[in-house]
Amino acid sequence: MAQYGWAASGYKTTFERKITAVNGNTITIDIPVMDPMEIQYGGGEVFKSNITGRIAESGVENMRLESDFEGDSDENHGWNGIQFNRAENCWVRDVVVKYFGYAAVSLSNMSRFNTVQDCAMIDPKSVTTGGRKYSFNLEGNATSNLFQRCITWGGRHDYVSGSKVPGPNVFLDCVSENTQSDIGPHHRWATGQLYDNIYGGQIQVQNRKAMGSGHGWAGAQIMFWNLQSTKSGIKVESPAAAMNWGIGCIGTAKNGTGYWESWGTHLLPRSLYLQQLEERLGAAAVQNIATADQLNNTLRALLRTRIAQIANEAKVYLPEIPGGNTAAFDITDNGGVVTAQFVSNRPLENFPNIIDNDINTKYYQNGKKALWVQYRSTVPAIVTRYTITSANDVEERDPKDWNLQGSNNGTSWTTIDTRTNEDFPTRLLTRTFEISNTTAYRYYRLNILSNGNNNNTQFAEWELWQRKLQTISFGDIPAITFGDDPVELTVSSSSALPVTLEVVSGNATVNEEGILTVNGAGEIVLRATQAGDTNYFPAAPVERIIAVEKATQTVTFEPISDRTYGDAAFTPQAASDAHLPVTIEVVSGSVSLNAEGLLSINGAGGVTLKASQAGNENYLAASAEISFNIAKAAQQINFPYISSQLRTATLTPGATASSGLPVSYFVASGPASVWGDAIRFNGEGEVVLKAVQPGNENYLAADTADRRFIVYGTESKTEKFKLVIAPNPTRGPLTVLILNKMRDKQYTFRLCDQNGRVISSCIIAGNSLVSVAHFNLFNQPNGTYYLYATNGEEQLVRIIVKQ
Predict the structure, then answer these.
(1) Regarding the domain delimited by 331-466, which CATH topology (the fold level of the hierarchy) does it fall under?
(2) How far is CA 563 from CA 206, 231, 568, 605, 633, in A?
(3) How far is C-alpha 390 from the chain's CA centre?
(4) Which helix (H) or strand (E) holds 137?
(5) Which pLDDT tens digit goes with each residue over 693-732?
(6) How far apart are alpha carbons 205 and 221 in whole angstroms?
(7) Domain 723-802 class?
(8) Cα separation, 467 vs 328, whole angstroms
(9) Which CATH superfamily hosts domain 555-631?
(10) Is 60 exceeded by the pLDDT of residue 322?
(11) Which of 397, 474, 573, 774 is a good FRET partner for 644, with 20 to 30 A between their CA atoms?
(12) What is the pLDDT of residue 756?
């Protein structure tokens, strides 16, 4: 084990025994030695014990001990609940220990023949690391001790021994819950231990090698009897020339090469210790120390229930010291405790007077030029100034040289102020001393190193003024959009001192009242500061980032009425309520926009325009559309007058549409036909010619225009129809003779003016004797007239001229 720092000189194990008989070179002792002694390994020696001063036949019982702590890892509080040093035939029973940092019961310094039973170590408070939370502990040559029916919750090494602890020692019928490390001998060759019916977490006897400070073999001659590890394994290793046993044990895993027997099943007898006790001293001895539940094997469930009960019990209430104000700036008013190096021999002038807030009382200490007074605050505090008030008489007794120290455990001190040659020129004078301390301490000590050269020291008051930390907090800041009304910000300090706000970056301003005016979208960084005062340190600046959203904007078109194809160009108007420039584009329709925004109509149909505003650093983009209709334009046909046409002529009518679109013709009636743009005649008589324009995508169809005109011939006869007309020209009378009259025909004559109005007519039957028709234009104006003659098969039209 040398590699772990072991040396033979450091491992002489001492066993304290009583010699009961001597026979030559053979001695008989009362208790076996728990380790082999062999000459080849150095042998052993016997010498008379010189142990004196043991406490005997004393006990601690029926108590509840709780340590006042400030956090789960606090170590400035109670460490050992009960400790026995050089105690024999003593006991601890029915004691509950909560929150202590190290042990409920620790047996040390040659303590022997002691019993610890029915005790609990619950929820220890300290850092969970080495040297802490050893719930029931053996150390310093403690031997022949019994721990039984003990319970723990939250410990590390709950049933444990330290370096070279000589046996026998017994842990019997104990339970541990929520263990943080292992149960068993901890380091450096503890011997002769029996762990009998222990229920808990990890349980081990092993070579710990270099762990800790070189722990090496933790134990030898260690018996694990009927143990149960509920959430871990059990490990048994044996060193050379020694033995460790694991018998009747149950756990999640069996580890190590020590002696194992009946793994996974408990054996009889249930308790090895109680069985040996009965065999050694009889059944009555067992009845003297064991309970019925122990003997009936029903104890374990009761102990587990007891653990849960104690763990869930509320912490003992510690009332505040009457009159204390934990929030006081003068911490000597917060209910703490003042102590002193020396107690005055004048009861009315003792050290409590220095914090009674009465300058007419004092602390007087006879025969001391130097002394200290100490104040333990109820809460840690950062003292940045203190006062001392001189007493009512004898200036030479005033403190002259001193220092002020701070501590958080009452043992380790830091000097935070030193004063020399200070003077109190008047009586009952209070002087203030500023210091640059920034550390919170719970203890403050005034070390008076010398006074004004008097054998006695006195002063009236001592005040310690703390400077508190403060924090700044913002209230809820609503969502802000550019254009919103100014926002009143809520910000405060824990000191209630006024907070200053400033805009670190971003387009905004904030006034002294905390009114935030936003001038643009984007990120605003606000900083809140509080400079502190005598009672408060400056607060750490707090910044808040506010994301100011861009405002929405609305684009609106001025109304656009429907238009008609051919209307004049116009300029559509649209605007943003953000007063930003708007662009207009054509979405659909036969229109076009020029660079100046003038909209030209290029065709009929639906039109959709879009007005857009792209946004900027403060406004989101926006757009709007408007639709209107461009109606087809009306058109008219201009159809010039058509004079009478000779049958052999070809007519080009000459009608035009106001739209400029081509005009087409059709013959409504009469002896004519359309050939392209020309009209040709195939007979004589009245022709009705119609001009049409059907429209297109931009123009409506034009109303049909028509012209009536006469188609006439120059011949007086045809093969079947022969006439003689005379005189022509005429002054009035007109005679028409039928030359080839046929009996089966009927002849009709009409004499019309140029407007087609019938002036005179007659009918001559073919089978009549009449062959002549008479007309008279005497009363008609001079001009051109038309004679229509038909035999029912053919029609002739002749021009008659009246002169």
Answers:
(1) Jelly Rolls (2.60.120)
(2) 104, 91, 9, 10, 10
(3) 58
(4) strand 136-138
(5) 999 999 999 999 999 999 998 865 556 788 899 999 999 9
(6) 10
(7) mainly beta
(8) 10
(9) Cadherins (2.60.40.60)
(10) no
(11) 774
(12) 84
